[in-house]
Amino acid sequence: MIFNYSNLTRSPRCCRLFVFNEKYLSWIAGLILCVSSLIVVSCKSKEVARKHDLDPKDELVRVVTSDEDKVEIKLFQQELSEAFDNADRSFLEKRFNIKRLLEMAVKGLDLAGKEKADFGRGMRSAGPSTKRQLVDTFMNSNLRFMKSVNQTRPALLYRMIMNDDSFTYVEFHLEKSRKWEIVDLYFYTNGKPTSHMVREASAQMLPNKGGLDNEMLRALKKSRESEVLTKQGKPRKAWEKWKTISPKAHHSRVVLTYGYMAAFQLCQAEIETNEDVGSELKEVFSLMSKNFPNDPGFAILELAVHHLNGDYDKYRDAINRIRKQVGDDPYLDLQEAIVDLAEEEWDVAIERAERSLREEPETLEAYDVLWAANLGKKDYKRMTELLSSFVELYEVEKSVFIDEPSYQEYFASPEGQAWLKE
C-alpha cells in the first residue's frame, strides 16, 4: 500500500467528489478519434443508408461455464489480484487482449469492405498505446476483488479507487482461447462495456445517407481540448470550451463524462477560493439524468451532486442502489458515513467506520471518519487513543496532524496537550 502523508488529515466533511479518472477518458476518446478519423477520410464521398446493429445477438447470449472453467477462473482471479497488489504490470500486459476487445467493437457496424480495412488499421494503430495507458491506470489504482459475476461472458468485479481518490467498479470480462484472458472492461461509471462504447461512438460518426455528420468528431475534439486546459490548471476555460459543444452531442456518454470532469475540476477550484460551488457540476448531472435516465453508473456520480445540494436522503438512496449492484462493500459504509458526519450522527458514523476497518484494516479513510466523529462528539479521550494507535501502527510523526485546522480545539484541550507531550 502506498502511504500518502498529504492525505492523512483531509476531512470527510469536505466530501470527496467523484469524477472518472482522466487517464481512462483520455485513452477511450483517443481510441475513438483515431479509428473514426480514418473512417471519415475513407467515407467522405459515400452516401449510403446504414443500418447498424448496436446489440449483436452473439454479444447478448450468455456463455455457460463448466465446473472446470470456474476453478480456472478462480485461479485467474487470484493471479490478477496478486498482480494488482504487487503492481506487477507484466501479468496484465500478457492477459489483456486489446485486439479482441476492438474486434468486438466492430461487430454490428454496417461497413463496406474498404471501410472495414480502414477500421482495422485504426484499431491496430490505437491498440498498443490504448493498452499501455489502461495498464498504467490500473497500476496506479487500488483494486479490490468483490465477486464473480455472470454476464454474457464470465466476469470479475473489482472496486477501483484511483489516485485522485475517485472510485468506481469495474468488471473484467473473460474469454478463453488457450488461456483465460481479459477481453472487455465494464466501468460502472461509464454505463456500458468499453467495446459497446466504441461501437456506438463509431456508428454516430459514420456517414449516413445525406452526407457526413462530423458533430460527434468535433465534440470529442473539443472535449480533448477541454481536458488539456484542465491539465494546464485553467478549469474555467476548460469548462467554457466544453460548453461550446453542440447539445446534439449530449447523447454521448463519453462527451458528458468529459463535461463532468471539467465541472469537477472547476468545483474543486471554487472550493479552494470559497466561491459559490457546484452549479456546473449540477448542470452536467442534469444532462446525464436527461439523456441516460437508467444508467447504472450514475448512482456513483450522483453522490457529489447530492452532497453539494445537501440532499442526504437522495445520497443514501444512491448508496443503496450501488449496494444492490455490487453487494456489501465496506467502502460504501465510509461513503455513507460522510453524510452521517454532515448530519452530526456521530455514533452511526463511528459504527460504519469500525465495521469497515474490521473488513479492511488497511483503509485509511476509516480513520478520517473516526477522527472527525470523535472530534464532533468532543470525545478527546477516544481521540487520543485513535491517534496514538495510528501513529504507532503507521510510524507517522505527530507533526503531520499539528496544522490541521479541525484538530486545533482538540490540541488545546488537556488531552491533546498531553498527547503532544508524550
Descriptive report:
With 422 residues, this protein is of the alpha+beta class. The chain folds into 3 domains: 5-17 and 214-362, Serine Threonine Protein Phosphatase 5, Tetratricopeptide repeat; 22-205, Nuclear Transport Factor 2, Chain: A, CATH 3.10.450; 378-422, no CATH class. 60% of the residues lie in helices and 8% in strands. It is built from 19 helices and 4 strands. The protein has helices spanning 22-43, 67-85, 89-95, 98-106, 113-139, 194-205, 215-231, 235-243, 253-272, 279-291, 298-309, 312-326, 330-342, 346-359, 364-377, 380-394, 399-402, 408-412, 414-421; strands at residues 142-150, 154-161, 167-176, 180-187. It has a 4-stranded antiparallel sheet with strand order 1-2-3-4. β1 (142-150) and β2 form a beta hairpin. α1 packs antiparallel against α9 (253-272), α9 runs antiparallel to α10 (279-291) and α15 runs antiparallel to α16. It is globular. The two termini are 28 Å apart. Residues 1-22 have low confidence and may be disordered.
Name a few traits of the molecule.
422 residues, disordered N terminus, alpha+beta, Nuclear Transport Factor 2, Chain: A, Serine Threonine Protein Phosphatase 5, Tetratricopeptide repeat, 4-stranded antiparallel β-sheet, 60% helix
Shape: globular
Mean pLDDT: 82
Q: In percent, how helical is the residue content?
A: 55-70%
Strand order of the main beta sheet, please?
A: 1-2-3-4
Count every beta strand, where a strand is a DSSP E run of 2 or more residues: 4
User: Architecture of the largest domain, CATH level 2?
Assistant: Roll
By secondary-structure content and strand pairing, the structural class works out as alpha+beta
Radius of gyration, in Å, reads 24 Å
- Strand content bin: 5-15%
Q: Could you state the order of secondary-structure elements as H and E? A: HHHHHEEEEHHHHHHHHHHHHHH
